[in-house]
Amino acid sequence: MTNPFKTKPNRRQFIETSAIIMAGIYLDGFSDSSYMKSDFRAAMKSAPVSKQLFAFRFDQLPSEQQELELTLTCLQGLVNRRRPEFYLVQDEYDLMWLDWLRERGDVREVVWVNLDQVWNKFLSVAGCMFITDPAIPTSGGNGRVHL
Question: Which of 30, 43, 44, 67 has the greatest CB tally within 10 Å of its CB?
């Protein structure tokens, strides 16, 4: 097979060619009327947000526990599969979204919890945990706990 490009394609050519191919595939799918009736979802649809939302601020973590941010984020994903009820605040934009959810009426009450309360309320949702070894560079390092 010969290379249609006289030289090795650069990133821009690759992206342009890929975009054209993907657009053709996407548009071709609309010519089939069964596509419009399918139940395809790119992401799973969750239940409505809980009226009582439990929230935790990352700035509450002491400096020696900063590595728990990844663990808490994983736990949030597991908890919110059932129904969104655990909200993590990383910055002022997360606070704005939380206010917006309250103003819209999606959430009636926000319960601010500390780290111990997070573990007591939600840790049972995690089926298992993996503790990485900081001595092995490919294991995630820093001895983080992954749910």
Answer: 67
